[in-house]
Amino acid sequence: MSQITNLSVSDGQNFQLALQSKSSTLNFVIIAPFAAFQMVWNAFNFFYKSVRDNIVDLAVCVTETTYLRAVEEKLKKSIDKKAQL
């Protein structure tokens, strides 16, 4: 059984734990729960914002189209009235 002579922990996005023994060096990279949660949260936000932006764009297009159709109808009526005079 080997004895641990050095234990180092580095702080960062990914929690890294390195164990060094007399016989060999063991390196472990452990993704801490907060880092995994952060990755999932970032992915969720990316897709949410993409969908939200697309829905907003669609709503703006529908609103503009509806407005332009109303303006077009008013112009047609105005032209028809002037043509009748």
Automatic annotation (TrEMBL):
Keyword Transmembrane helix: yes
The keyword Transmembrane helix appears for this protein: yes
Record field: transmembrane: 26-48
Keywords attached to this entry: Membrane, Transmembrane, Transmembrane helix
Protein name: Uncharacterized protein
Source organism of this protein record: Trichinella nativa
